[in-house]
């Protein structure tokens, strides 16, 4: 397990490097954010923004979305990939919000996680971005970069989430989620990490073990 000192050094370096890291998704309400995050699985934020620009003109409330047919919604979101399951999840979550939460996206983490079609990662992102809660959502970037840094060597996203929560001060969770995503997209890519240009290379387990090897 990474030492608290090292975890804070990495946190400070990534915070300095990405001081304003926030999601690139466009939204104007917690509900729009929820839909955009569901659509963003295995899809770029740019693509999601194009899709939601048209979709939200047709439906941008849970009531309106719940009334769309699966087929109509699929036509809007087709280019995001995984469109069948994403359409199912968006409609299920919208119905749940209308039927169980009076049409308002709930602000509590457990309530968000209870919505049909909303996974742990999506709930954590909405909780932290829309409601200012402390949470770490583990997506593919957070999982990979955390492993390489030695931050969290869990075998599953849930394991990684728990290790990150142990290693980082609570008030840093949300920011570090975004900072690690930025780092994963810009520097620590899956196939060819730019270790020579990385601000945390001296603290990185993967980099140091390769140097030694
Ligand atoms: S040193 Fe390389 S592997 Fe480690 S975090 Fe930086 S880019 Fe990723």
Features:
2 domains; elongated; 213 residues; Endonuclease III, domain 1; single chain; Endonuclease Iii, domain 2; mainly alpha; binds iron/sulfur cluster
Molecular structure report:
The protein has twelve helices and no strands. It is mainly α. The mean pLDDT is 94. The longest helix has 19 residues, at 83-101. Helix 2 (30-39) packs across helix 3 (45-58) and helix 9 (140-149) crosses helix 11. It folds into two domains: 4-21 and 137-212, Helix-hairpin-Helix base-excision DNA repair enzymes (C-terminal) (Endonuclease Iii, domain 2); 30-131, Orthogonal Bundle (Endonuclease III, domain 1). The structure holds iron/sulfur cluster.
Written as H for each helix and E for each strand, in order along the chain, the element string is: HHHHHHHHHHHH
N-to-C terminal Cα separation, in Å?
A: 21 Å
- Helix percent reads 55-70%
* CATH evolutionary superfamily of the largest domain: Hypothetical protein, domain 2
If you compute it from the alpha carbons, what radius of gyration comes out, rounded to the nearest whole angstrom?
Answer: 18 Å
Largest sheet: none
Number of domains: 2
Indicate the CATH topology of the largest domain.
Answer: Endonuclease III, domain 1
Name the beta content range.
under 5%
User: Unreliable segments (pLDDT under 50, ≥5 consecutive)?
Assistant: none
Globally, the shape reads: elongated
Report the count of strand segments. 0
Q: Can you give the mean pLDDT?
A: 94
Number of helices: 12
Bound molecules: iron/sulfur cluster
């Amino acid at each position: 397990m990474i030492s608290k000192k090292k975890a804070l050094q990495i946190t400070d370096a990534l915070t300095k490097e990405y001081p304003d890291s926030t999601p690139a998704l466009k939204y104007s309400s917690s509900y729009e954010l929820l839909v955009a995050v569901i659509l963003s699985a295995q899809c770029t934020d740019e693509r999601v923004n194009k899709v939601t620009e048209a979709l939200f003109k047709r439906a941008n409330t849970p009531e309106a979305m719940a009334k769309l047919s699966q087929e109509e919604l699929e036509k809007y979101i087709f280019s995001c990939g995984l469109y069948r399951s994403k359409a199912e999840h968006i409609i299920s979550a919208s119905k749940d919000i209308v039927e169980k939460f009076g049409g308002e996206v709930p602000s509590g983490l457990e309530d968000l996680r209870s919505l049909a079609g909303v996974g742990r990662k999506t709930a954590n992102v909405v909780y932290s971005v829309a409601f200012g809660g402390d949470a770490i959502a583990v997506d593919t970037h957070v999982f990979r970069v955390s492993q390489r840094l030695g931050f969290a060597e869990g075998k599953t996203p849930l394991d990684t989430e728990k290790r990150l929560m142990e290693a980082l001060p609570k008030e840093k969770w949300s920011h570090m989620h975004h900072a690690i995503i930025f780092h994963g997209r810009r520097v620590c890519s899956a196939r060819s990490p730019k270790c020579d240009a990385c601000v945390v290379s001296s603290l990185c387990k993967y980099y140091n073990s390769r140097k030694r090897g």
